[in-house]
Write a structure and sequence with these properties.
mainly alpha; 0% strand
Length: 89
Amino acid sequence: MGVLDLIIHGANFVAPALFVSLILSLFTRRWMVSRLSLAKSFAINFIASCAVLVLGLAYFGVDGKMWTYALMCAAAALVAVLLAKPSRT
């Protein structure tokens, strides 16, 4: 496997984490529920999502399991909830 193939495979591996993190960060900024800036929220969500993808790859031995993607979305949502502004009630 050449360097270009390695870059393409790596980009395809993290693409779901990138998309989920970007959409989630944009939605949390749109409704003003995030305490952080868009870039910081995106970075934290992206790191958490990539960590879940790597753990899923290590556990299952293959990439692309639906359980891994479901846990990635759940982890990103959990991080978004933890970074949310506290309610004023």
